[in-house]
Every structure is written in C-alpha cells, then in structure tokens.
Amino acid sequence: MRHHHLTIDLPSFRSLVTGGGRHLLESTLVPAGLFYLLLTLVSFDSGVIAALSWAAAVIGTRLLRRKPIPAVLLLTTGLLVARTVLGLATGSAFLYFLQPTLQNFVVAVLFLASAPFNKPLLARLAGDFCAFPESLSAHPGMRRFFQRVSVLWALVFAVNGTVTLLMLATATVGNFLMVSTAGSYTVIGLAIAGSLWWFRRSLRSAGITLRMGHRPAALAA
C-alpha cells in the first residue's frame, strides 16, 4: 500500500502557549484567585460572586466583540454557575469545592466514553487551543491518537479527583486551594508534556511532517 506524506503548518509554539495560557487564566486561575482574595478580605459569599462575575464578564466581552467563545470557557462557566448556586444556598465552602472535585470523575468518564468515536471530546477541546486543519483532524493516524490519548486523560482526571477529594476532607480552605491547585497543574503539566511527545511520535508514524510558525501552507501529498 502506498503511504502519502503530509506536511502540516501550525502556528508557532509561542503563539500556542500564549493562547493556551490565556484560556487557562480566563477560565480557571483568575476566578480561583478572585474567590480566595474576596474570601480572605470580605466573605465567602463575596468570593463566590466575584468568581462568577469574572466568568460572566469574560463571556460578555467576547459576545460584544463578536469573538468565538472557547468550549473550555463555556464548560467551566456552566459548572461555576452550579457551584455558585450551591455555595450561596448552603454557605458551605466544602460543598462549593466538592462539586468541581467530583466533576473530575465526570470528565474522566466523558473522556473514556467518547474515546471510541472518530472525534472524541478531547479532540474537540484541543481545538480551543490549536485549530487543527481538517487534513490533520481527519487523518486516521490522528484519530487513533486522540482515541488513545483520551484514555490517558481519563486516568489523569480520575487520579486528580481522588487526590483532591482527600485534600478537601483534611485541609483548610487556604491550604486546599494552594496545594490542590499546585498539585493539579503539576499533574496536568506532566500529562500535557507526555501527550505532546506522544503526538509528535504519532505524527512521525503516520508520515506527517509538522512545521511550526509557518503561514498556512498547502499540503504535500
């Protein structure tokens, strides 16, 4: 069987990191920081409202500027709304953080359940950080990669949820936020590094050359 060689052009690594970092700040780090700041200086309710207000402001700004809203931002904001309602109704920091902790297990199940499909959930979310051309997304080798790496990320979220749940049961709110955030992003960072290595290896195996920082170019078949 004849194998076709593809050359795919993607944005520079720096622009990918910048874009991914911006999504991370908007959807996770800034709301968590605002919550802890207002919790410390004012009250629990103020922290809860500040975190949700930030997410609403980000989405509202994107709508006014007619910019696309990342699926990650929509997902985290939807979950934040549910957390806010629960937190304000009960006044319990434990329940406020219990919901996102349990959501780790929900995400793990979704990743695992979507793995057999041609475009797993992980592939759709990855599109928020890097818009893969259709020639790459539709390639059988890349489909197999996202199906397999979905299992890895299901395991990552299951482990993360288990460790975070143990921390929530034993630590103060301040310690929980610092340790769980640092620990979670360390695990996620290692998983990202491993996924990128796996991604490059899958590209080579599929006969795909990846060029970073080039303008969108034609495919070489």
Describe the protein.
- There is one protein chain.
- The protein is mainly alpha-helical.
- It has one domain.
- The chain is built from eight helices and two strands; from the N terminus they run E-H-H-H-H-H-H-H-H-E.
- The protein has a two-stranded parallel ribbon with strand order 1-2.
- Helix 1 packs parallel to helix 3, helix 2 runs antiparallel to helix 3 and helix 3 runs antiparallel to helix 4.
- The longest helix has about 35 residues.
- The C terminus is likely disordered.
Strand adjacency order, main sheet: 1-2
The percentage of residues in β strands lies in under 5%
Instruction: Indicate the structural class.
Output: mainly alpha
Tell me the total number of β-strands: 2
Low-confidence parts, pLDDT < 50 over ≥5 residues? Answer: 216-221
Individual helix count: 8
Radius of gyration: 19 Å
- Form type: globular
- What sequence of helices (H) and strands (E) makes up the elements? EHHHHHHHHE
Tell me, rounded to a whole number, the average pLDDT: 79
Give a topology summary.
Blueprint: E1 6-10, H1 13-41, H2 44-64, H3 71-90, H4 93-114, H5 121-129, H6 134-137, H7 140-170, H8 173-205, E2 208-212
Parallel strand pairs: 1-2
Helix pairs in contact: 1-2, 1-3, 2-3, 3-4, 4-7, 7-8
Short synopsis of the structure:
By secondary structure, the protein is mostly helical. The chain contains eight helices and two strands, in the order βααααααααβ.
